[in-house]
Specification:
The structure is a homotetramer of 109-residue chains. With 109 residues, the first copy, chain A, is mainly alpha-helical. The first copy, chain A, contains three helices and no strands. Chains A and B meet through helix 1, helix 2 and helix 3 of A and helix 1, helix 2 and helix 3 of B.
Chain lengths: 109, 109, 109, 109
């Protein structure tokens, strides 16, 4: 993963219309941008020798914010990918398994 | 993973000598820079309409990396702040309470 | 919740046929019985003044075991309750929301 | 919540005087007894085919209660074992490492 690309994160370049989170996409991108800023803030705190307990408080806030984004994505996955697979008359078990594995990773992270 | 700009948040400008994590500071700053890149990568994945399960995998990786940094900071806090307070002949209970509160926030985040 | 009842936990008295976890019910009940034993073991360790780090190890094991049960129940909920609601031609959104709330509680617990 | 049998795992038989949690021991044992009852309650809910979301809510409550006990034990470990090791003029690093490992297991469980 390299991030030196000047076009990074430009939300207007993605196809953006076809996927379920298109409707919430700007809000989601804004939240991720803020979390990136939180992590950059943690970096700055360490660079400036901030007291470690205060650094830990900021890390917990960033972690919680990431988990909140993950929970929102999971709900969208259930509401769109799993439900769509079930309603298409196909076998939704692969989607269910994927969702379950993602939940397990999230609970254990 | 490179961030393309080595001058952002220049870690060499902090006082850096007086605090316990001075010895590990460059490694710690490098880890935080990589996590910042991970979050930026998540942002890009959403911008490009990446399948949500893959986005969740990246979020879990970033969350785990943040927690690993937090665990390292906590160990440093115990080894330096708590132990120093105890060895100074003072009352280390305030440091213990701070550490405990930080652990609780971390476990619950 | 009272537990003085001698019939407690008798898996043969439940209706057991109508609910999705009927098929896995004996295995699930066995896992919960073992977790109950783990918690009882933690109690005994404290009663016997076992070194606190060893008690913590046992508590972590019991916590992980409870989370594994929860993950199994969640997967069942998705595979049965959410998918059934979607396939019945009704609106599965209430089931999706319930599942999402349960996932959030689990991630934050 | 009552367990109906005060003699199970009789907490009065431990030595109970020598270890740091002696002072809080009865409260700690009471909390563990209640958690054991919560797990038994989860078992009964499954035996009676309770709706899985309600079972999950109880599992989350038991998990949180276990984590609260663990956090209390950790704080005691820091306040007693780590601080005592530091004040004894010895090397507290083994105690710090044990505590850090226990915190890591707890955060990841």
């Amino acid at each position: 993963m390299t991030t030196g690309d000047p076009t990074i994160g430009d939300p207007t370049t993605g196809p953006g219309q076809g996927y379920w989170y298109a409707e919430d996409k700007q809000a989601l991108l804004g939240r991720l941008r803020r979390i990136e800023g939180q992590v950059r803030g943690v970096h700055r705190m360490v660079a400036e020798d901030t007291y470690c307990i205060d650094v830990l408080t900021q890390i917990s806030a960033a972690t919680r914010a990431l988990q909140a984004v993950a929970l929102g994505l999971l709900e969208g996955h259930l509401a769109h990918c799993v439900v769509d697979a079930a309603q298409d008359g196909g076998d939704p078990s692969a989607k269910v398994r994927e969702a379950s594995d993602a939940i397990a990773r999230l609970v254990r992270s």
